[in-house]
Amino acid sequence: MDYGAMMFSTDYSIRPDDLAKMLEDRGFESMWVPEHTHIPASRISPWPGGPELPRDYWHTLDPFVALTAAASVTKNINLGTGICLMIERDPIVTAKEIASLDMLSGGRFIFGIGGGWNAEEMEDHGTNFRRRWRILRENILAMKEIWTQEEAEFHGNHVDFDKMWAYPKPVQRPHPPILMGGDGPTTFDRVVEYCDGWMPIGGRGGGASLGEKIVLLKKQAEEAGRDPNSLNITSFGVRPDPELIGRLRDAGVDRVIFSLPSEERDKVTPIIDECARLIS
Question: What pTM, to 2 d.p., does this model score?
């Protein structure tokens, strides 16, 4: 099993390049950063994590800038978004950003995506909350065309463009792995149709129920004609608990991502070291 770590890289936490070097030096397989362009001050949409939204959410750095800084000082650690809010992004521009990062990092980017929870944030970008999953699907399918075709073309209800030339192409072929976040009733449909893996949060529900879900996902993939063993299962935001790690491993998880607080080096180092001791 692989081990990674995630942090809301902010204007007050350890720099993402410094964090990436620390993680790589300690044997972590991957580093992950989330994304929020902003948080509307109205605070109408409830945060799924509790009543008080941490300030990390509106202080976070742009994920691709942060990961490019991390790539510049590392050689081996993979660099992922957890998650990228593609429903708030232009697919043509983002396809170029990702291909550029994948090229500059030597093929180390992992594309974690999701639908998001903050309706007002999406509306500021012109995205209707109820249509976010349909928009996400077309964004991803269009980006795949840009990454894999010399003359990409896409015509959908939300994304529409004629033949174009767009370079660079990603180093990874056919494109960087795409992991779908979330755990809703139709999540597996999305994973099977246009993703390369599933990224549930924190092993919710415990190892046994997560294991049952993984079995269902792989069965659905096989029925759709996909190799079920090609799907990566990444448990996101895991606490450094050896017993939990063991349950996740037994459930069939391929990668666990520890959650780090948005703090300066002196405060986050002991937590990183605690997590590093679980790497085997």
Answer: 0.96
